[in-house]
């Protein structure tokens, strides 16, 4: 596996066209990642996955900053497709549009449970992080952090404002918990910095117009009712994208499901560039 500051190769690289995948693939997350999908696809087009900026570098990034960073590091090779998972689907649409402008050739756009983050998205992710760290935070601190998050959701308007408030709450709770557990400041800074970075990524993704950028996309949807397009009315889903393929798997398993890999292989082989 070759690592660059911007893109990471996953799977074999036979040369020729590449597939670009947008995701925030944090270490230890429960959801499958594009590396799992690459394993399921086997030999074929090279797949490159986004690498997040160094912690702190993205402090004031907006959507254009992320996409500029990725586009500038795409090599002079044909791009067969752009893939996006969850909030990465918002960025994937923008990245595909930028590559089309640059090369005059539109890559296929494949989205996996795509989401355009909202305040509820930020709150849901906040709850997941707090609950995953409840062992370190302790029951009392975890409950207090959840209650503070509830109040922030009810009292703050807008994705960016809520994100800023949730980062403040989480940072305070995590720093106290790390100190109580005897963990050093470097660990606490990495923990809080990673969460801050993820929130910035979600805020930037929310800036992208999905109605404009998802036109023509093929969507791979899980059975999890709260993920991707599932909360939308069927008519709205149909109007938003080119077509939707549905799978009886949970959101966390979407990128590792053999049926999904088989369908992706068929789309890549049959659709090519549109």
Report the structural category.
alpha/beta
Label the overall shape.
globular
Q: Bin the helical content.
A: 40-55%
Please tally the helical runs, counting DSSP H or I stretches of 4 or more residues: 11
Low-pLDDT runs of 5+ residues are none
Widest beta sheet: strand line-up: 1-3-2-4-5-6-7
Distance between the termini: 30 Å
Describe the protein:
By secondary structure, the protein is of the alpha/beta class. The protein contains eleven helices and seven strands. A seven-stranded mixed beta sheet has the order 1-3-2-4-5-6-7, sandwiched between helices. Strand 2, helix 1 (34-41) and strand 3 (46-50) form a beta-alpha-beta unit. Helix 1 crosses helix 11 (258-271), helix 4 runs antiparallel to helix 6 and helix 7 (159-180) runs antiparallel to helix 8. The protein is globular, with a radius of gyration of 19 Å. The protein starts with 6 loop residues before the first strand and ends with a helix.
Summary of the model, kept short:
This protein is α/β, with parallel strands linked by helices.
Features:
globular; alpha/beta; 274 residues; seven-stranded mixed beta sheet
